Amino acid sequence: MKITTDSFNPVLIKELRQHFHGKLFLITMGLLLLAQLAALFLIYGNMETAAANNAIPEVMGPVLFTASLVTFGIACVLLCCIASLTRFMQERINPELDFTRFCAMSPLQILWGKMTSCYAIAIYLFSLCLPFLVIAYFLRGVSIINIAYGVAFAIIGALFAIQIALFIGSIGQKSITGILFF
Questions:
Q1: Which of 142, 135, 119 is nearest to 16 (CA)?
Q2: 20 to 30 A from 46, CA-CA: which of 62, 105, 149, 165?
């Protein structure tokens, strides 16, 4: 079976194009990588200072691991949740942009396409964190099992946050947006 773009959900393709062509995506991706590099340089500076003072350097793997997962969570909330929520909310408020009014797709197909595109962006952001998780493993203090559990909980949390954001966006009221911030 040959997979082409025609076999994918059109909403999925539209949402992925909007994500990848938006400025917020590039800004979030850049900030994610810069935050992880800053954490890595701070850890390196701490280890060099400890070596210069003839002290035993601390185990820095958990620090980098935590920094990587926290930056992944912030990037997911910013790019996947809030951006998708506001885009979906604008489509629901404006009848000219509402998919349910001008296309033959069912609401389930529309929502599935939006959710799948958010999942793909979350996995892409996570792939940007993987090299830093490997470095955290080599800095000692974090086992592969702990990394696997942390990654599983972070991805499950991101997927759950995406579902809640799309649910709130499907309501289509701007006053509901404040729920995400509390």
A1: 119
A2: 149
Q: What is the DSSP string of 22-45?
A: SHHHHHHHHHHHHHHHHHHHHHHH
Contact call for residues 136 and 64 (beta carbons, < 8 A): yes
Cα distances from 129 to residues 39, 66, 158, in angstroms, run: 12, 11, 14
CB 61 within 8 A of CB 142: yes
156-168 mean pLDDT: 89
| DSSP-assigned letter for residue 79 | I
- pLDDT tens readout for residues 123-150: 999 999 999 999 999 888 899 999 999 9
Q: Count Cβ atoms below 10 Å from residue 181 Cβ, excluding itself.
A: 6
Structure tokens at 80: 């996947």
Alpha helices in 53-143 (DSSP H): 61-75, 83-93, 99-102, 107-138
Contact of 125 with 76, CB cutoff 8 Å: yes
| Whole-number pLDDT of residue 122 | 92
C-alpha to C-alpha distance for 121 and 140, rounded to whole angstroms: 30
